[in-house]
Amino acid sequence: MLFVAEDMGYAFSKLELESGDDSSIEETGGSAWLDRKLDSSDHDIAQLTKLQSGPHENLSRVLPGRRQYPVSTTKMLAGREANLSGRGRFSSGDCRHVLSKYLPVNGPWVVDQMSTRAYVSQFSADGSLFVAAFQGSQIRIYDVDGGWKVQKNILARSLRWTITDTSLSPDQRYLVYASMSPIIHIVNAGSETRESLANITEIHDGLDFSSPDDGGYSFGIFSLKFSTDGREVVAGGSNGNIYVYDLEAKKLSLRISAHMSDVNSVCFADESGHLIYSGSDDNFCKVWDRRCFTAKGKPAGILVGHLEGITFVDSRGDGRYLISNGKDQAIKLWDVRKMSSNAAYYRGYRDYEWDYRWMDYPLHARKLQHPYDQSVATYKGHSVLRTLIRCYFSPEYSTGQKYIYTGSHDSCIYIYDLVSGAQVAKLQYHRSTVRDCSWHPNYPILVSVLGRRSANGNSLERRWCNRLQTTADLKGDVSMILYVRMYDDITSNPHTMYP
Questions:
Q1: What's this model's pTM, rounded to 2 decimal places?
Q2: What pairing do the DSSP bridges indicate for beta strands 403-406 and 241-246?
Q3: Is residue 487 part of a domain?
Q4: Average pLDDT for residues 261-271, to the nearest whole number?
Q5: Domain count within the chain
Q6: Dist CA 178 CA 182 (whole Å)
């Protein structure tokens, strides 16, 4: 539930509602569920979140016998004026505390509409570009700072079914895209050519991930990511393998027989590139250390707790924490220091037949828990059905990664508080499954993509602000809508808040 001050054009989450008196403030919103408390001092993630996004202790100190309330922006400014911190300015934690109150809940604005389903929604690392990929062979790169104009329109090569994933290099010069094929393609995203037609106007080099060991079996790539230095690409395949491709050597540098089923998601754990996280339909997240694992593909550790397959994993970037979205309708937070060396299969709960692609999740299964669950926390409330729905940590720069956000089959976007587990926002502007969404690294802007079948196959272009009702004249003809939600009053230049 949100409290919205419409006359000022902003919205706070219920948890962050500022109060000038001692009136009661509820601590949760919506139907989110957290299976264990994280706000005690023995949980490192709670302390890290407090350090990254909490106000100075002189501003948040509570007198004995008094209830603790969120520190208001007014109090923060007054404290800075009085130099209570002793610095004479806001710290990065102070700035994040203020900025994290402003959630991207207003709008939405339509950025673009296409005739086929959208599968990927990604901001570049600096937020200047946005990438969207569609089932109909198209990838579009938008110039965010230039009014969301299409900077590059890419027509993919050798497409099988859909574009499953894309990744933009850290320097934003190259983009790789994958399909249900063992060959991914790399495109020069920084060239001046606006229309990039594969091998017609531009070369789309193919990077072959297959090997003689595959025995001629064709597989697809579900997930891929550039390394921080841009020299490697990690990928997960439908054959249960993880691959690392060396772009300078132009060959595979690593192939791991990693899982017993599809590898739906992979990512590097931190900037070093030594650790890799993976999530699979075999219900496990695994941690791979490239410095020490053997040729047999033994993982550094296994994270047990999901009851169904994993659709996505996202790293906090510190080599310690990650989150995973599961078909058991839950996001789990993991600490790799608690991983085990053996996989603990648990099939005793499976007294039903279920397929997430066309069936609802059984009601009684929602109450089941893995007896060997190693996760730090579990977040529930959203729906993971029909497609590989993605979840992420919120940006470090503006929020200190204090939130988790995810798409959902129920046409909503959910934002959870990492520590309390509370549902701080539920964005309800869509009419079909939200597969992917992306939060701008610096601004309170969130972009979501969704897909639904078109009545007449037309591709429409329209933009609007503030009210979704202005789309009534579309009459269900749109297949994909790219939405933007933003907080009006702070998007002019949030950097001015920083010292």
A1: 0.85
A2: unpaired
A3: no
A4: 98
A5: 1
A6: 8
